[in-house]
Design goal:
By secondary structure, this protein is an all-alpha fold. It contains 8 helices and no strands. The chain is flat, with a radius of gyration of 17 Å.
């Protein structure tokens, strides 16, 4: 599954960085666009992430190749299910369900897309790959949140998981 995880991690984190930088600029209003705020440079730097390491479209194609060559989708889905399955606290029920549902939706898409043919399939690969990446990110966040609740009595990670699932 490493061949699948690498492009998904690059694609997902690069996309999330761009979204986060954009939100930061919006939070600062017009001042966020000024060079002396540092945010304009941050925005340029985050856009580079998805260019230097391969555009999101190229990374999505790499993820699809990994699935085809190494039959990596089934073990990937097992990872999402295992991490989401660690949730025991009621605060994590919805995020755990969302992680599994997103991964299952992506798996269903894969099965349908393979039957429909390569043109439509490649046009939708980016969204498919982002769904896989975000489902794993959420499942990992759920697992970490359960640990934080168990070991530290800290619900902040659970709140983060709920917020991430809502987006």
């Amino acid at each position: 599954t490493l061949r699948l995880l690498q492009p998904l991690a690059k694609l997902t984190t690069a996309r999330m960085a761009v979204d986060g930088a954009s939100e930061a600029i919006e939070a600062f209003g017009g001042a966020g666009y000024l060079e002396d705020s540092g945010l304009a440079e941050l925005m340029r730097d985050t856009h580079v992430l998805s260019i230097w390491e391969g555009t999101t479209n190229v990374l999505a194609v790499e993820a699809a190749r990994a699935i085809r060559r190494a039959d990596a989708l089934k073990p990937f889905l097992a990872q999402v299910t295992a991490h989401a399955g660690l949730a025991r606290h009621p605060l994590l029920t919805a995020p755990a369900h969302a992680a599994r549902a997103a991964a299952e939706h992506a798996a269903s898409f894969w099965s349908d897309a393979v039957r429909r043919g390569p043109v439509l399939f490649e046009a939708e690969l980016r969204r498919f790959s982002l769904t896989l990446g975000r489902s794993l990110a959420l499942a990992l966040l759920v697992a970490q949140a359960q640990w934080a609740l168990d070991e530290e009595g800290d619900a902040r990670s659970a709140a983060a998981a709920r917020r991430f699932a809502a987006s």
